[in-house]
């Protein structure tokens, strides 16, 4: 969820949700997820296509149910994800199973479930899939189950091969996958050998070809370059009598966290389709972040504040265990101020939340004033007006119209102006986890806040909750979906009792 979705009623709702369910709290804009999915579908609408949402970005069952209802397939990287997809109503024939390290038992279950295909990552894995398919066929025969249909689906494992095109996707090295130095996929020559092998096997059916060169991509060229290379390979296979049906272009499309310019979906589809002329393959794509990323907001409250000689720290109740991306990738999630302090909060002396929202830019000047001079309205899609408000330490929160601001990269103020302006103190927003990397933003211009103030980190819908952990024995947050007809809890906060129940039982049983 980004600030431009935050109309006054929405801000008030977020305050209520934080009050009802506590913080930290993940909140998702469900219609936004639906719009993002539909945009993908439309981009490829002139062509046979299957959008397989990548569950790793966010696998909450309510998110998956929504996508299932819109016709989504699923890209899964563990049998747990396959089971989640099925539970949410995504049919097996729309599920693909990818990942560089699949266990035998996972492959076996995937074959038994009759998913669409397995994306194979090495010759060794191909032979394991073949051996498992053979075992299953023999098991079935020995059980004397002669039903032709089930025999067919079990005997031949439908596979696709992940080809590594050795193309630099120009993204963060941790999420770059398309170079030979990365552990993913096989080179073009090995892929050819694998297809020839699979083609001759009685237990393998090669039906697709796959590539995925990285995540949070903002340049189209590496993607079309990869597609061209892989399409050429698929055409050369056709000449060898291997007729594939699915061209799987992976995921990876970036979103705007800060100032990135996302790839236009229409350009993306046209760019890819332009490499496939004369071929009738069904396009499979595996978007994750682009479907859910901008739908999510992580709500958190200020616990405490700390001033050292050189630094100001604003300590919030979300930590790197809740949202790991800043600590792991140095990622930036725009913080927005949604309320000053909770009503009747023991934490703050302030008279209550007010309906206002401010967005802070990490490049912001450290100047603000009680007039509007320090802020520019953040107006991507936001209709309305209002003045920037400096929240002085003891200032009564004004009954302002809801407005959304970001600090403006202003030119230097004139002497006359600057004399009336107070510097807006910069702060690091940090979590409570015992690691220095538990830092959300550094040196961000932030007005003085009361403890209890409500903040939100934007664009937390992808790889937020799904990468959360219980590090420091911190319970994972609750998740709420905002639907057109209201907000609903879609996952409860983990309880301490549930988290220790198993260990306690085992502890007692060992006495
Ligand atoms: N398909 C494959 C084979 C993948 O490896 C991935 C992501 C996707 C699809 C979905 O990519 P997306 O459309 O979401 O970019 N935790 C990192 C991102 C890791 C992505 C891993 N693979 C982050 O928070 O940025």
From TrEMBL:
Superkingdom, taxonomy of origin: Bacteria
Binding site for substrate: 289, 325, 329, 435, 463
Cofactor(s) in the UniProt record: pyridoxal 5'-phosphate
Signal peptide bounds: none
Keywords: Amino-acid biosynthesis, Coiled coil, Decarboxylase, Lyase, Lysine biosynthesis, Pyridoxal phosphate
Region (Disordered): 406-427
Sites bearing N6-(pyridoxal phosphate)lysine, chain numbering: 56
UniProt-listed SUPFAM superfamilies: Alanine racemase C-terminal domain-like (SSF50621), PLP-binding barrel (SSF51419)
Binding site for pyridoxal 5'-phosphate: 252, 286-289, 463
Protein's pathway: Amino-acid biosynthesis; L-lysine biosynthesis via DAP pathway; L-lysine from DL-2,6-diaminopimelate: step 1/1
EC number assigned by the record: 4.1.1.20
Domain Orn/DAP/Arg decarboxylase 2 N-terminal: 32-292
Enzyme class: lyase
Any one GO BP annotation for this protein: lysine biosynthetic process via diaminopimelate
Catalytic activity of the protein: meso-2,6-diaminopimelate + H(+) = L-lysine + CO2
Any GO MF annotation of the entry: diaminopimelate decarboxylase activity
Orn/DAP/Arg decarboxylase 2 C-terminal domain mapped to chain residues: 26-338, 404-461
Coiled-coil segments on the chain, per record: 123-157
Known role: Specifically catalyzes the decarboxylation of meso-diaminopimelate (meso-DAP) to L-lysine.
SUBUNIT field: Homodimer.
Similarity annotation: Belongs to the Orn/Lys/Arg decarboxylase class-II family. LysA subfamily.
Protein name per UniProt: Diaminopimelate decarboxylase
Organism the protein comes from: Helicobacter canis NCTC 12740
